[in-house]
Structure formats: structure tokens, C-alpha cells
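Sorry, any thoughts here?
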Amino acid sequence: MNTLSVIVRDRTGVLYQGEAKTVSGKNEKGPFDVLPEHANFLTLISDEVVIRLSGDTKSFKLTRGMLSVVDDQVTILLGVIPNK
């Protein structure tokens, strides 16, 4: 099975970098999942993002952030979007 290459950053630096089976988040339309071979995608996210690994998960709580997917590379920027 293909994997996603994931990097999670905030203003202080890299919080996580590695491979994942799926990434789940929430945007204004509701919850969503990113799987390998996902279409290129850019969205604002809120609440929480969950990265699923082989037998483990990593989750990051956030107020607002951004998630992009380009060619199985997922970039998540936490706390970079000011609150309204």
C-alpha cells in the first residue's frame, strides 16, 4: 500500500515528519480523510488533525491551520491563520 509523506509545522518548527497511511481533519464542510493518491487539495482546517501510522496515531489540536496535499505530500501548518 502506498503511503503519504507528512510534515506538520507550527511557528516554532517541525512537530512531525514521516510517513502515514491516512490523515484526517475537519474543514468548514465537515470531517475529511486524505488517502494515498488523493487529488491535489488545499483547505483551512480546525479542531484536530489525526495522522494514522502502521499501528499508531498522532493527533494535533489546533484552532486554525492549513492543510495541503500535492502528489502524496501532505503539509500541515498549525496556528498560522489568525483567528477572526
Notes: Residues 4-78 form a domain with the ATP Synthase; domain 1 fold (CATH 2.60.15.10). The chain has one domain: 4-78.
